[in-house]
Amino acid sequence: MGQILGQVSLLLVLMAQAPRPLGFDTQKIESITGLKGTPFPEEGVFKVSAPRTDINVVVDGLKMKPPMGLTSWAAFKKARTGVMVMGDLTMLEDEVNPVMSVCLDNGLEVTALHNHFFYDAPKVMFMHIGGSGSVEQLAGAVRKALDKIKETRAASPSGPARAAEVAAGSIDGGAIEAIVGHKGQASGDVFKITVGRRSSHHGVEVTNNLGMNTWMAFAGTDGNARVDGDFAMKESELQGVLKALRSSGIEVVAIHNHMTMEEPRTVFLHYWGRGSTRELAEKLKKALSITKD
Questions:
Q1: Would you say the C-alpha torsion 251, 256, 259, 263 has a positive or negative sign?
Q2: Measured distance CA(156)–CA(174) in Å, rounded
Q3: What band does 18 get if pLDDT is binned at 50, 70 and 90?
Q4: Which residues are registered as beta bridge partners of 90?
Q5: What does each C-alpha distance from 157 to 149, 152, 170, 249 come to in angstroms?
Q6: For 224-271, how does the pLDDT look when each residue is reduced to its tens digit (9 = 90+)?
Q7: Which helix (H) or strand (E) holds 255?
Q8: Sheet holding 199-201, edge to edge
Q9: Domains of the chain, with CATH numbers?
């Protein structure tokens, strides 16, 4: 009897030490993404990583290596709809928007875009992604995003190219107002429209001049303009605005919060666009129509 109990005890120990199944096909994730993964059975997570060994980044005089934060990753976990994925893609500036479009077109949500460093050359951006669905869909979307990074870098191995300087000129603010549907104001050779939104913070209403607004500022000439600005969005509006901007060729340069504890929670998106003022105004009107109080 003692021997049997000892064998049972040993079996229980071995069972406890054995890796717990994650409930989804991790080999398929590796096969689709082309990356070796690491299981974390205590969390039910399987994670693949892609170190950016292809770029030479210097931060404050120090040549950076992938373990210092220059690694793209995606982590999968079983969910009711199949699996969920969360990840962070490490990119140079010219990789961000092509990769963002690939993510949005293939069922991934883009939830944040920001920097992690100061004094970095070339500048590095980090884009957080998430989604739920089948292993095939999500792993495939991650693979397409990573392939787009490689494709963009292969086309310009030395890094993002600098554009020619844009000459300042006159901007027809009235034409922009007519398209966007909101009044603006000229300041020198810049024409700016600001659209206020509303939120609350500890019971106090937060309005336009407290920073709760969407704005767009045009400069250059009507035929060759640049526009920059900021969208203030409810969380539920973010993905729709991203898709509207990217499908129109507007570049997204940051996604983050400006406040904490606000209700409803507000996400801010900074962007940059090139083209004629009329074209840019039409594109921004499309995205603006998604945001409603």
A1: positive
A2: 40
A3: very low
A4: 126
A5: 11, 8, 37, 23
A6: 999 999 999 999 999 999 999 999 999 999 999 999 999 999 999 999
A7: strand 251-256
A8: 204-206, 199-201, 262-263
A9: 20-155 (3.30.70), 173-288 (3.30.70)
Structure tokens at 83: 């699996």
Query: 72-111 burial by CB neighbour count: b if 16+ within 10 A, else e?
Result: bbbbbbbeeebbbbbbbbbbbebbbbbbbbbbbebebbbb
- Tell me if 44 sits within 8 A of 23, measured CB to CB: yes
Q: What does the alpha-carbon distance between residue 249 and residue 273 come to, in Å, rounded to a whole number?
A: 7
What are the φ/ψ torsions at residue 247 (nearest 5 degrees)? -65, -20
How far apart are alpha carbons 252 and 254 in whole angstroms? 6
Over residues 90-95, mean pLDDT: 98
Is the per-residue pLDDT at 1 higher than 80?
A: no
User: Helix 238-247 to helix 277-288 angle, to the nearest 10 degrees?
Assistant: 160
Contacts 24+ apart (CB under 8 A), 83-86: 83/24, 83/132, 83/133, 83/134, 83/135, 83/138, 84/130, 84/131, 84/132, 84/138, 85/129, 85/130, 85/131, 85/132, 85/138, 85/139, 85/142, 86/128, 86/129, 86/130
Q: Which residues pair with 50 in a beta bridge?
A: 72
pTM over 0.85: yes
pLDDT of residue 186: 96
DSSP 8-state secondary structure symbol assigned to residue 34: T
Q: How many CB atoms lie within 10 A of CB 219?
A: 19
As given in the structure block, the two tokens for residue 175 are: 């034409």
Phi, psi angles (nearest 5°) of residue 162: -90, 135
Burial class (CB in 10 A: 0-12, 13-18, 19+), 227: buried
Are 26 and 39 contacting, i.e. CB atoms less than 8 angstroms apart? yes
Taking only the tens place, the pLDDT of each residue in 41-83 is: 999 999 999 999 999 999 999 999 999 999 999 999 999 989 9
The one-letter code for the residue type at 11 is L
